[in-house]
Amino acid sequence: MPRTKKDVVTEFRTAEILQAACRVFAEQGFEQATMAEIARVAGVAKGTLYLYYPSKQDIYWAALGRSLLELAAATRSQVESAATAEQKVHAFIATKLRYFEEHRDFFRIYYSEVGRALCRHGQAARQFDDLYLEQVKVLDQVLQHAVRRKAIRPIRTDATAFALFDLTRSLVTQRLRGLSRASLDEDIEFAFDLAWKGIGHR
Amino acid sequence: MPRTKKDVVTEFRTAEILQAACRVFAEQGFEQATMAEIARVAGVAKGTLYLYYPSKQDIYWAALGRSLLELAAATRSQVESAATAEQKVHAFIATKLRYFEEHRDFFRIYYSEVGRALCRHGQAARQFDDLYLEQVKVLDQVLQHAVRRKAIRPIRTDATAFALFDLTRSLVTQRLRGLSRASLDEDIEFAFDLAWKGIGHR
DNA sequence: CATCACAATGACCAACGAGTCAGTATATCG
DNA sequence: CGATATACTGACTCGTTGGTCATTGTGATG
């Protein structure tokens, strides 16, 4: 247990900064957000931000990555512990919808980042893209396995995985925009029902 | 027929500028794109841009709006001229996939704009949002009608309309990212199949 | 060819914001 | 308490870029 005091302060400031960054980036988007505003919300001076992160980009990736990894881990865990393919698909959708419901700011940043992936191709964001594709792969493998077992009809599993991914995003977006008057559980069942009927046997 | 000469030149320059803007915005995104770069690609001086559009924002909306209206009109027309609900849903998906395939730069801008809709809420982009919701409504009404006729099972038509919308976007994205090795027609059939099975009777 | 109207230009300006750093406050310790 | 170290501050720098406008080019007209 080295420098406990220093570490505690660092951890505290880091969390404070990332939380503020999350709020500001979610509200303004990356380009419109300013370091001054993040500092204001975090309750520190602008210079302090640079004691903990070397640049605006780094704060952004840190804020995004933290939640992204958490969500990826939760999804993997829930999907793994589900028994059947049906339950795995359900778990995938439910986990994501629940997590985004609790982390709306994160979803805003995430969603806008996905939108930007088509511009600036080849540039940064490799980490982000990898995680994204890995998530799709989890679903892809569930589907492949299900097809082999004839639990679902033969189908292009990779394209379907993407589609289910986007179906989930679609529901979250509807909720965030206030376009869904249904409860979270109702939305989960709705999405799963649509998906399962779409890929199901008949 | 007034000032023909002037009108022709104006039309020519306008088209040239919008095309250049479309390319640059698609590549860089709104914030990263510079007026200097748009001017360079259009083959004019920066000042010339301001003879035809009052601001960067205006060029952006003009470039986006032009294609957006065209797509909306095409979709409406194709859906209307289809006979059954099944054919209407098919027409909706096919029209969009085909249009985006031919206007990839437009799709990039469109997609990134959708991503930004969750940030900056309440601000500009009202036109854009209206058109977006109107497109969903077209599909919603097709579904409502189909439910009444019992052509599909009873279902939350508004949420489903959104979901089909995003399913379509999902396929386009896969194509643009080079993740789909299928032909355009195959992707259309795939998307339609998935959708129709999902909402179908059994 | 001279004149004129206006389209086009690009050097310039002002605003803005990321990142810096000399100075200040605060904590630690002998 | 005084000395030293370190966390923090915010005024400043400096590159970038949207937008302007005095000047230049062009083509029509008499």
Overall description:
The structure is a homodimer of 202-residue chains. The first copy, chain A, folds into two domains: 1-53, Arc Repressor Mutant, subunit A; 64-199, Tetracycline Repressor, domain 2, CATH 1.10.357. In chain A, helix 7 (126-148) crosses helix 8. Chain A has helices at 4-32, 35-42, 46-52, 56-81, 85-102, 104-116, 126-148, 157-176, 184-199. The longest helix of chain A has 29 residues, at 4-32. Chain A has 202 residues and is mostly helical. The first copy, chain A, contains nine helices and no strands. Chains A and B meet through helix 1, helix 6, helix 8 and helix 9 of A and helix 1, helix 6, helix 8 and helix 9 of B. Chain A binds a DNA duplex (30 and 30 nucleotides) through residues 6, 9, 13, 34-36, 44-51, 54-56.
CATH overall fold name of the largest domain in chain A:
Tetracycline Repressor, domain 2
Q: For the largest interface in this structure, which chains are involved and how many residues does each contribute?
A: A-B, 48 and 48 residues
**Overall body shape of chain A:** elongated
Chain-averaged pLDDT of chain A: 92
Specify the helix fraction band of chain A.
over 70%
Low-confidence stretches of chain A: none
Distance between the termini of chain A: 60 Å
Report on the biggest sheet of chain A.
Answer: none
| Total helical elements of chain A | 9
Count of individual domains of chain A: 2
Supply the CATH class of the largest domain in chain A: Mainly Alpha
Q: Report the radius of gyration of chain A as a whole number of Å.
A: 19 Å
N to C succession of SSEs of chain A: HHHHHHHHH
CATH architecture of the largest domain in chain A: Orthogonal Bundle
Structural class computed from helices and strand pairing of chain A? mainly alpha
Strand content of chain A: under 5%
According to DSSP, the number of beta strands of chain A is: 0
Oligomer: homodimer
Q: How would you name the CATH homologous superfamily of the largest domain in chain A?
A: Tetracycline Repressor, domain 2
